Each structure stands twice: as structure tokens, then as C-alpha cells.
């Protein structure tokens, strides 16, 4: 499929920054807690990300948190990933998985618990002038090419990534994820607002569960109702989707 450019300006975060930074700090902590709860068999379970088991997914998230923790580490990973060629994000995540493949599961847990707070602090310190700049390169979301600001990546996507993978791990292991209105529902609501802006159509959306809520975007559209996490799985491209749910949002 040939990607088409439909967005003129780089995408920006929509939540206020204090909220975004609170979500980042909380999510790193929750991801670390989720890893601590895994038993030996859980680490080998297949996830819905092709080619990755739970251990691979944890290695990727550890590498991404390490990258977020310092500019030096960001440059190092980008340089090595760039040498691999191919799709940049696939090269980067592949590098992260491979670099942590020799760690024991307890080492993965301990390293993530240690690096999460550092990543949150580094993201909080990123200057406004830097966050307002256009992120080099382009991103493909739902088959369409778009550009992002650095801030959209550092403030929004770098929290959605471990959050989404925490849900992936929960699904793979059969363990219910920790979901609360003050954290997960805020992330879901942000995704909903972006999803509605992306498709631009009237819709009444009802999402159930502790991360859910109700929204109306204009009048006269369809009524869409489903569990909040199933909505997330649909708009992330992880589950079959029809109608407006085919509009994807990046994670």
C-alpha cells in the first residue's frame, strides 16, 4: 500500500503537560509492577505483536525507557538502528529486543524499575523549544504518512507505548491489567479525542469498564459501544475493526 500524506502540520500533544508527565511517571511504575507479577512460564508466552513473546516485549520497553532517559542513549540507539536499514521503528525495536536478550528475567525487572523514574525525569526536563520542533522523518499510521512534533513523541507516545504493551502482556498471560479512572481512563480519553479528530465524522461513543467513558462528536452519527480496552485494541490495529474503528491511532 502506498502511504499518502494527509496532515499538513506536525501532530502535537493535546493534554496539558503536567498531566502528561504524571501519566508517564505512573505508567513506568505500573509497567514495572506488571513485570514483577509474572512467573516463569509467563515470560515465554506469545503476544499479539508478531514475533514477540512477553520477554521480547519487556526487552523492547526496557530499551525504549533507556532511550528516553538520556540524549546520549537516544543517539546511540538511533545510530545502531540506522545501520540496520529497513523500516526505522522496526530496526529500533529489534535492536532493543536483541540487546536485552541475554538478561535474566529478574535483571529485566530490576533494570526497568530503576530506569523508569530516570526516563520520567528526563522527559519532564525536555525544553519547550525542543518539544515544539518537528521530529525528523515521517510516521505511517493506518497506511497514511504524517509528521509529529518531538513533544508528541516524548510527552504522549512514549507513555502510550508501555501502557499498550502492559495491556498486551496482560492479554498474553491471562492476568487482568490494573485499570483506574485517574490514570488509564485519562489515556483512553486522549486516544478517543485524537481518534475522533482523525476521522472527523459524527459519532456517539460509549466505552465500558474502569477506563471508559462517553463522548459525542457532533450529531447524527452512529452509536458505537464496546469495552474501553477492546476499543484500544481496535484503533491500535491489534484487533479486527469496522467502520470508524478502522481509523488508527499511534501507540
Give a written overview of the molecule.
The chain is mainly alpha-helical. It is 54% helix and 10% strand. The protein has helices spanning 17-36, 54-69, 71-84, 88-99, 105-125, 128-131, 150-173, 184-199, 228-235; strands spanning 4-5, 139-141, 144-146, 203-208, 213-217, 223-227. The strands form 2 sheets. It has a 3-stranded mixed β-sheet with strand order 1-3-2, with no helix packed on it. The chain has a 3-stranded mixed β-sheet with strand order 5-4-6. The longest helix has 24 residues, at 150-173. The two termini are 21 Å apart. The model is unreliable at 1-6 (pLDDT under 50).
Assembly category:
single chain
> Helix tally?
9
Low-confidence spans: pLDDT under 50, at least 5 residues? 1-6
Percent range for helical residues? 40-55%
**How many strands in all?**
6
Please outline the major beta sheet: 3 strands, mixed
Strand order of the biggest β-sheet: 1-3-2
Amino acid at each position: 500500500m502506498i502511504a499518502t500524506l494527509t496532515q499538513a502540520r506536525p501532530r502535537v500533544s493535546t493534554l496539558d503537560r503536567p498531566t502528561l508527565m504524571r501519566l508517564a511517571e505512573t505508567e513506568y511504575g505500573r509497567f514495572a509492577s506488571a513485570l514483577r507479577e509474572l512467573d516463569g512460564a509467563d515470560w515465554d508466552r506469545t503476544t499479539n505483536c508478531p514475533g514477540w513473546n512477553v520477554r521480547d516485549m519487556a526487552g523492547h520497553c526496557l530499551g525504549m525507557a533507556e532511550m528516553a532517559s538520556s540524549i546520549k542513549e537516544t543517539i546511540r540507539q538511533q545510530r545502531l538502528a540506522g545501520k540496520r536499514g529497513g523500516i526505522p521503528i522496526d530496526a529500533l525495536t529489534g535492536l532493543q529486543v536483541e540487546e536485552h536478550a541475554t538478561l535474566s528475567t529478574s535483571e529485566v525487572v530490576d533494570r526497568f524499575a530503576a530506569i523508569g523514574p530516570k526516563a520520567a525525569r528526563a522527559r519532564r526536563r525536555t525544553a519547550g523549544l525542543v518539544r515544539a520542533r518537528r521530529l525528523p522523518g515521517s510516521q505511517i499510521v493506518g497506511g497514511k504518512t504524517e509528521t509529529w512534533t518531538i513533544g508528541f513523541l516524548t510527552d504522549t507516545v512514549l507513555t502510550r507505548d508501555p501502557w499498550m504493551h502492559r495491556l498486551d502482556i496482560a492479554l498474553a498471560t491471562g492476568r487482568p491489567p490494573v485499570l483506574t479512572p485517574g490514570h488509564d481512563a485519562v489515556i483512553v480519553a486522549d486516544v478517543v479525542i485524537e481518534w475522533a479528530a482523525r476521522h472527523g465524522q459524527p459519532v456517539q461513543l460509549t466505552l465500558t469498564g474502569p477506563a471508559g467513558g462517553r463522548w459525542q462528536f457532533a450529531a447524527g452519527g452512529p452509536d458505537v459501544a464496546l469495552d474501553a480496552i477492546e476499543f484500544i485494541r481496535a484503533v491500535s490495529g491489534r484487533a479486527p475493526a469496522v467502520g470508524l474503528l478502522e481509523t488508527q491511532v499511534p501507540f
